[in-house]
Amino acid sequence: MTEDVDIEWEAWASDDPPSEFADQVMDAVTGVRPVRRSPWVSRERASFKRVAVLVAAATAVVSFALLAAVRHRIRQPTAGHSASSATPKPIDGPASANETSQAVSSASEPRMQVLSPGTILDRKRRDEVRAQIKPAIESQGIEYDPKTGLTLPAGSNGPSHNLTREYIQARVREDFYPLARSCYEAALQKSPKLHGRFVIDFMIVGDAKVGGIVDQVKINEKSDIDDREFATCVRESMLSMVFAPPENDGWMTVTYPILFSPGDEEPRDR
Amino acid sequence: MGQLVATGVDFEKRARAVEVDRATLVGCKARDPMAFRAFVLGYEKAVFGLLSRMLERGPHVQDLAQETFLRAYRAFPAFDIEAAARPSTWLLTIAVRLAVNARKRVARAPTVSLFDAAEIAHASTPETERARRELGRAIASAAAELSDEQRAAFILAQFHGLSIIEIAGVLEIPENTVKTRLFRARSHLRARLERFAKGHAR
Questions:
Q1: A contacts of B37 (beta carbons < 8 Å)
Q2: ∠ CA(A262), CA(A263), CA(A266), 5° rounding?
Q3: Interval A177-206: pLDDT, tens
Q4: d(Cα A116, Cα A119) in Å, to the nearest integer?
């Protein structure tokens, strides 16, 4: 075979570094991000400034600890028993918080934790989040049952459009693929030649204070894989995903087709 | 960006990373954070390109890219600025070794390929873009059948513009072995992609 073949090799796509990659590397190599020094500031001045900042920070920490200790001592005689047992702990507070920080934390309100994209939710946590999202959804006059999900009324505000195709694709590839791959590997144990396509319809709902979760997942009829267990695994995996919340506490529907094929199998022309 | 020919690669015409300047390298040797940041920015795209073609695309690429730069940072004091080796070749050597080691680890687990057509909510895809994506998948699939050394040699030559001598240095093999591996890699890709290229790329 001596004939030359014209190939646009650049079609072989590669990943691009995220915009913050250099900063992540710098965090890893130095522990802190480099501070861009003005050319007018000499190294000696920069060192002096660094020492001054450290001294100020140390002073602040000592003052804070003293203040906390004083507050702790003021409370102790009036409690009648152990101050630590009488101090309410924040619901989401760190488990390893020491007594001083608990005393300080008790003065603040328990905070609602915002889910970050990339989180994988188990079923229990998902139900909790659904319950947290409920008020925001219902404030728009949309019926929402945390058990069954959203019921979209005719003439509702309409879908959100802040989540781009690229964003959803990146999240699905990073977070959903490992889960789907596990589902597929389990399915291959039963049917080693199993391959085909799942077209997944899902809805993202959310609240800016909580995050965006997948509320409903349906395997579209365009799918050509007939394996109920595999479908359930894929569906449950998609339900555990977390996205950025759609704008205006809204919702968004997505149709996402995914091809599954064993590793060594070539795509074939028909 | 035009069509490239799979045989008779002219190395000098291949795009390669623009090297960082000497002052940056001197700063990196002295562990200056700003200089090293400039170094990362200068080569991050090349490292991501190499790793995501050597391995599959995915989040592991970023992890390995970070590891590549971490190793470079640690090894910089020993890097000889005056030597003939270009910084990009030196860095790609680190990346190739990490990729080959990663593939050896992964090879023990069963492999499953999983492609998405990425058709999201009423988004229409132009036919040409779809054909290009199919071609990209076909290249990746055919390249996945090459040995690690053949694939590395091909990627370094085709996408990073390294010469035979430089590839021999990166892979620590004789120049004639590089030529053999490149020939076999191209023959394989040509055979696998010929039908596809005639049907889609032209």
A1: 22-23, 25-26, 34
A2: 85
A3: 888 888 888 888 888 888 888 888 888 887
A4: 6
